[in-house]
Amino acid sequence: MPLRIEDVHATEILDSRARPTLAVTLRTADAGTVRAAVPSGASTGSREAVELRDGDQRRYGGQGVRRAVAHVNGEIADALRGRTFRSTADLDAALIELDGTPTKSRLGANALVGVSIAAVRADAAARGQELWQRVAELSGAVPLLPVPHFNVVNGGVHAANNLDFQEFMLAPLGAAGLAEAVRAGAEVYARLKARLTAAGHSVGLGDEGGFAPAIDRPEEVLRLLVEAITDAGYSPGRDGISIALDPAASEFWSDGRYHVAGEDLTSDQLIDRYTEMADRFPVWSIEDGLAEVDWEGWERLTARLGERVQLVGDDIFVTNPAVIAEAVGRKVGNSALIKVNQVGTVTETLEAVRVCREAGYTQMVSHRSGETEDTFIADLVIGAGCGQLKSGAPARGERIAKYNRLIETADAHQALPFGLTPRG
Asked: Is the pTM of this model over 0.70?
């Protein structure tokens, strides 16, 4: 079924951090009008597709997106309006060609990704399909309800505290289903709040809805999480609730060293520390454990922990199929974080998932620190069969929207399998 584009329009809106982003409306002959809102990251890889900002200090401290909006309403709309595309892949190819740069820097990846997401949404609507069903056809994957990973303690660039590690997540690997997994995350979140309050810590929230206590040692957070898991009546570990980390190590790397809680560590010393954490606590996944430039360190980290811990590349991989293929060849990591706006179009995102799947690398679909109410990633993770989603804590509307979309889909389609991989 072709996509017959009638009009495209973008508007500058706000994300969850009170910073500008954009929403794109797309009108097609067969689906009517659909909308997509674009997320924005704080902890970003240097090789990400370029998010276009205005730089005008008189508006939003230079963070406005009027230029990206103008590109959608002008050059992109002129190129798409009145045209018929055989597929969303053809439309994405036209966007990439129109931009003409390797990093989408001319028109802006934020402009392109809004149009790309809207196009897939329109494609599904025109076919009378759920969005995840169309994504499954585009990706060639078996649809799968994912294990949610709840970021319940925020640090790094996501919070105003001295905690260098950026995210501490609850992963209900042992849950029987999606609704039970979300319930587990919410219940442990509540018990963690009670423990933090009893210890005199602030229970203010970071960018992604997790608590931001005045703690600097990651091991102390891990201890609190294990206690909260137990308080809520769950078993710490793969049969119950495991812990996933996103240190975002590029953020505390400088001068060839890692600066963590007042200590200056070499790559090997930080690898030793991760090994000790995995020995002492139910840590099942570590994302961006080393800096994006530290490829040799990543090779040693993978050799050391790759058989027992999921090692997720985010800043180092940037959802780029070519970079992921290079990592596979060098035995760097064993998993990739998947963010649509990191690469710029849905087609390229699904290609990154395909490269991972063929190499035996797992995939975790992710939100960004600057989010909107748009739930596209919930349908993406189901349709692409990735098995893992992180969308922040079970708090704040822009985070909860994704988890609620998963719950509603699970309820409406009870035959959908749940888990890290298809069961049975």
From this structure: yes
